[in-house]
Task: structure prediction
Amino acid sequence: MSVKLQKGQKVSLSKENPGLSKIIVGLGWDEARPQQQKGGFLSSLFAAPVQDIDCDASAFVLRNGRLVNSRDVVYFGNLTHESGAIRHMGDNLTGGGDGDDEQIMIDLQRIPPMYDKIAIVVNIYKAYSRNQHFGMIQNAFIRVVNGANGQELVRYNLTENYNGMTAMIFGEVYRHNGEWKFAAIGTGTNDDSISSLAKRYQ
Result:
């Protein structure tokens, strides 16, 4: 049975699932439907088209909680970590459809011992130039799935108001006392790029 977390809660992944090796971190979101424009049919017909919201998920692979090398950022421009233990499954440009919009595969047993945490973050591509923010997104979630059998282990649904926020720290997979755990973070930021968001961990 999947554990439903609230913001700030933590859960052990390996203690509850002996032998757990590979996990899939799935992230999902939906673009909120714009309110019906005033002015009737003709006004809506000639209104400027709304651009799709392109959310980009990334994994920051941290040493002692810090990002020490740009190669430790796994994202659409660097899909596989040099250790081979973390792999981004590709960029979803719109967030449309049901289920996970982006997935990050993690082989817990192959993560080198110098790494203790993997922060899972999402930023809106060109958020400021497109005038987009997380208040325009609904049904956002992060979940952890057992890579061996597809069973969902943990889910965290983001429920706060994130108006004006252009990036989000969704959650963290981390190693503590020999166990792998997951923390539900749900912290919004005003960062406008992956590199800007990465500076928070340097």
Summary: The helical segments are 40-45, 127-130, 194-198. The longest strand covers residues 179-189.
